[in-house]
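Structure catalogue
Derive tokens from sequence
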Amino acid sequence: MVFAGFSRDKRRLRPHVAGMRRVLPLLILLLMVCAALVLLHGVGWESLARHQDMLIGWVGLHPFAAPALYVAAYVLTAALSLPQAALLTVAGGLLFGAVAGCALTVFGATIGATILLFVIRSAFGKTLERHRHRIPAQLQARLARDGFSYLLALRLLPVVPFWIVNLAAALAGIRLAVFVPATLLGIVPASFILSSIGAGVSGILAQGRTPDLSVLFGPRILLPLLGLAALSLLPVLLRRRAAAQA
């Protein structure tokens, strides 16, 4: 009798638990929006130029808190797909140097993207499942097998918006074990380029000018990134060739 009553109570709780699983991610997202409004309020090129000396000094005085705060800001930016991402990456190079700034940026962006993927799948999982049938079965099989290569190629290309890749990964059902390393590796080159720009941007900001980030889309940068993206797809091409010859 006791076990029967427990089973009935458990069945009654299931709808409430399922509802909480859908609502909780949205509450987390709402809290992140509020945190972003506080933490990133007024952040722009002008404010970075005006306060860069103070920020550099503060970073020097707080070697642990400063990187943690920067990563938190980048997590919010990546998870909410905010337009300050490029500015923050440059700021990371200015405040921490090219290498450390790149590492902190990649770390924060990967965490933010993973949180967004979790929110999308938890809050809109049923909707995604209903629309997943629109993806051809053959393509779904390829994504399940070669998802890392495809996602890495998309991450390497700065012309593909970060948030679109996140949504595509959620819709395609890319596993977390694939999503995290592909994101981590794929955003390193562009992040390092922007962090390197930031490491030498102090004089430009002091003159009241905005750094030219269009260099990221110039042929000297974009062509090597296209080459890396093509190289990441090489395992897929080799597998297809082997399957065709079998």
Q: What stands out?
A: The CA atoms of residues 132 and 172 lie 7 Å apart.
